[in-house]
UniProtKB/TrEMBL annotation:
The keyword Methyltransferase applies. It comes from the Bacteria. The keyword Transferase applies. SUPFAM superfamilies: S-adenosyl-L-methionine-dependent methyltransferases (SSF53335). This is FkbM family methyltransferase. One of its GO terms (biological process) is methylation. Residues 92-247 form the Methyltransferase FkbM domain. NCBIfam families: fkbM_fam. Gene3D superfamilies: Vaccinia Virus protein VP39. InterPro entries: FkbM_mtfrase (IPR006342), SAM-dependent_MTase (IPR052514), SAM-dependent_MTases_sf (IPR029063). It holds the Pfam family Methyltransf_21.
Length: 281
């Protein structure tokens, strides 16, 4: 009678090897993604050195399912350029579901995290992912948007890309909620963290960068390295020039990441399009 369990176990191993082989092909992962029904709301996946729970129906979740990461190469490269930092606290503004917080802490460079995120769906997944990766005790989650004053603001949901939800009202109808708005310097004071403790700021906040930069004067004055998304088409006509002028007063170097390319340039000559820029002393 023991032969049947043995055969069943062998068949399971054979099946697992076959699917592991198939998952190595991009087309198979893409087809698998398309076959996920809407009643599968969340997926939890074990990656090489971390776990993540995410929605397979929105942009970042689709990238995680298909590619096994979301901008991890960028996170690793930024750490390589920045090198060792005096401050050992990571500040992520627009932390989303925690992908970059987890990637960056896997380097061992940071012993504390401050994650700022206003989007309720993202906050729920962020907290779950911090727990899955044993980061809850070293992380402060601040549920608010970052801006140039303290108050309350309308926050609009993007249903296809949770990370694209923002304070900018889109064309047409969109669900919205009211969220707290706080200055970054005040956020740090509120959690009793000195600006000198911050080693890196990672910021992706869908067009609200200038307001947030103005509100983190204590960090900018110290020229703390900042990685930020820079999309001038999201700004009002004068804001792109105002942003580059403000940054050039404080930072000496800038590395621009566009797709797979990387180049150092004068901050005052930042390109159009959609780029990530690393501000360095």
């Amino acid at each position: 009678m023991k032969i049947f369990p043995s055969i069943e176990k062998a068949l399971r191993r054979s099946r697992d090897r076959m699917f592991a082989r198939l998952r190595s092909f991009d087309q198979f992962r893409q087809i698998s993604l398309l076959t996920i029904n809407n009643d599968i709301v969340l997926v939890t996946r074990q990656f090489a050195d971390h776990k993540l729970t995410f929605s397979p129906h929105e942009m970042i979740g689709k990238s995680l399912f298909k590619n096994g990461h979301f901008q991890r190469g960028l996170a690793d490269r930024v750490l390589e350029i920045v090198g060792e930092t005096k401050g050992k606290t990571l500040l992520e503004i627009g932390a989303n579901i925690g992908t970059h917080s987890i990637y960056l802490t896997r380097s061992g460079r940071f012993d504390r995290l401050i994650c700022v995120e206003p989007e309720p769906r993202n906050v729920n997944l962020l907290k779950q992912n911090l727990f899955l990766n044993d980061l809850t005790d070293k992380t402060i989650v601040v549920e608010c948007a970052a801006g140039d004053h303290n108050g309350v603001v309308d926050f609009y949901f993007d249903e296809s890309n949770y990370g694209a939800s923002s304070m900018t009202k889109p064309r047409g109808e969109a669900r919205s909620t009211r969220v707290p708005l706080r200055r970054v310097d005040d956020i740090l004071r509120g959690v009793d963290v000195s600006p000198d403790d911050i080693g890196l700021v990672w910021m992706d906040i869908e067009g609200a960068e200038l307001e947030a930069l103005k509100s983190m004067r204590e960090l900018v004055d110290r020229r703390i390295p900042i990685l930020m998304e820079y999309v001038p088409s999201r700004y009002r006509p004068s804001e792109a020039n105002e942003t580059t002028a403000y940054l050039s007063q404080h930072y000496g170097r800038c590395v621009v990441f566009s797709g797979k390319s990387e180049r150092e340039m004068d901050i005052r000559n930042l390109p159009g399009g959609e780029n990530d820029i690393l501000l360095l002393p």
